[in-house]
Each structure stands twice: as C-alpha cells, then as structure tokens.
Amino acid sequence: MSVLVVALSVGAACCLGFGFVLQQRAARHAPMKDFLSFRLLLDLVRVPLWLGGIGLMVCGMVLGALALGQGEISLVEPLLATNLLFAMALSRHQTGQPLGRQGWGGLALLAGGVAVFILAGQPKAGAASVDELRHWLIIGAVAGTAMLLAFCAKRTRLTVGPALLALGAGLLYGLQDALTRVSGQHLEHGGWAGLVSGWEVYAVVVLGVTGLVLVQSAFEAAPLRSSLPALTAAQPLAGIVCGVGFLGDRLHTDTGALAWESAGLAAIVVGIILLGRHPAMPSGSARAPREKMAA
Fold first, then answer.
1. CA distance 240 to 250
2. What tens digit of pLDDT does each residue of 260-295 get?
C-alpha cells in the first residue's frame, strides 16, 4: 500500500467533505422551480459560498484523480468515503454539537470499516478485462440505476427524493472515478493525443456535470443529513464494482477474506448513516426566501 496514495486520497476526502458542506449551505436557498434542472447551476454560480464549495470539490477531484493514477480504485474509494468525517468536523464546528456515543460510534465504524476492508481485501492491480460486453453491461447498469433513481426522486422530491438523488449521484461519481482511471492510463501511454482520442474523458465530464445537478438538487431540497450519507455510501460501492468488474482490480476471495471484506463494507455504510444522522449535521429547513440567493 502506497503512503502517497493514502495521503492523496485522504486529502481528496478532506476537500470533498468541506466542499459538500459549503455547497449545501448555498443550494438550500435556490428556488425549487430549478429542481433537477441545469438552471440550478446557473443560479448557484452567482453565489460566492457555492463557488468556494465547488473549488474545494474540484481540488478533491484532482487529488482523487492523482490517487487513482497511482493506486487501485478498490483502495482509493473506501478512503474517499472518509469525506464524511471532514464534513462532520466542519458541521460540528458550526453547530457546536459534541460527538457523543453516536458520533464516536459512527467514526469508529467508518474508519474501522475502511481499515478492515483494505487489510482483508489487499487490493492489487491486475489486467483489465478485454470483454467489451462486460464493460458496457457494468457501465450501463450503474448509469441506468442512477437515472432510474433520479426519475423516482422527481416524483418524491420532498420525501425520499433527496436521498434517492444522492444515491444516484454517488453511483455516477463512482463510475466517473473508474473512467478517470482509464483516462489517466490513456494519458500515460498515449499522451494528450491518446487522452482526447478516447471516449472515456468525455464521459468523465458528462458524468461529473450530471452528478453535480443531481447532488445540488438533493442539497436544495433537504438538509445535508438527508443526502450526504447516501452519496458517501454509494460512491465507493460503485467504484469497487467497476474496479473489480472491468478494471482488473483483484481482491482476496477466500472465504475468510470475503467475510471480512463484507463486514468492512457493512461497517462503512452503518458508520456513514450514524454520522450523517448526527445532530451536528445541519438539519434546519432547506428552504429559504428566493432573495437570499444573492447573499
């Protein structure tokens, strides 16, 4: 396991966590008529707080891309899931809420789950699958599920809609991470010509923008605790599926290792839910008068 990969992944998680908190604080004042519309981004781009959150998110994505270029996606993705710890730290600073049993328990489960999964699975790089059908089946399943979740969210936007949107965005971000790694390999072996000649780099942009619309709509419709846990849980799961499914990542698959890997992933998900539901996470009304957008 490379110390550089771990440092880059944790740095990315820090930027992403802080960025998500700032984005949600700005997006909650956006007009609901822009829900699931690209107009939402045009409204938010005029808000300095949101731009600051996007700047941190971009820094996190760059650091994550560097980590993916140096290590396996099955190693990087669980570390990126710790972005919730940094979001929690910033939210706790703003609200003044102590961690308590729920906070410390969630922290221990998330951090412990990441450690258990990595130690049990021992992710290693392998030869990427050459089966094109397998590639497209996995990509189609992940992207199709995300779009189905978005469709369902539009009908239930004031109830479970934000969580469904966050799940969809997390799936798209996990797929984006996988294609970012492929794009990095094109750049490494073929230079800029190799990068721009592949479809993956354009898919990365489309997935990023689409995921951004989904997650900002989730932030607009409900408090952070309704969306960030689902986003944080879905992204590593989708990334690991892509990594093992067609990028050639290898995990230990004996019975004991699989049991520990499953336990680690379950601990990560439960820890994310506990932290996301902690009182330190903003839980006030997501809606606000339209004129506050310019604040």
1. 10
2. 989 988 888 888 777 767 666 655 444 444 444 444
Over the Cα atoms of the chain, what is R_g?
A: 18
Beta bridge partners of 124: 250
Q: Hey, which residues does 250 pair with through a beta bridge?
A: 124
Q: Could you report the per-residue pLDDT of 7-65, keeping only the tens digit for each?
A: 999 999 999 999 998 998 888 887 777 777 888 888 888 899 999 999 999 999 999 99
List helix spans (H) across the chain: 3-27, 39-44, 48-70, 73-80, 83-95, 100-121, 132-155, 161-196, 200-221, 228-242, 255-276
Closest CA to 28 of 176, 135, 162, 142: 162
CB atoms within 10 A of CB 185: 18
Query: What number is the average pLDDT over the span 228-237?
Result: 84
Scanning the structure block, which residue is given the tokens 């479809």?
A: 199
pLDDT tens-digit series, residues 104-114? 787 788 878 88
Q: Is the pLDDT of residue 257 over 50?
A: yes
Long-range contacts of 57-62 (CB under 8 A, 24+ apart): 57/15, 57/16, 57/19, 57/20, 57/23, 59/12, 59/15, 59/19, 60/11, 60/12, 60/13, 60/14, 60/15, 60/16, 60/19, 61/12, 61/16, 61/208, 62/12
Token digits for 260?
Answer: 């520990």
Q: What residues contact residue 116 under an 8 Å CB cut-off, 6+ apart? A: 260, 261, 263, 264, 267
| Residue whose structure tokens are 């729920």 | 102
pLDDT at 225 over 80: no
Q: Which two tokens stand for residue 206?
A: 């489309």
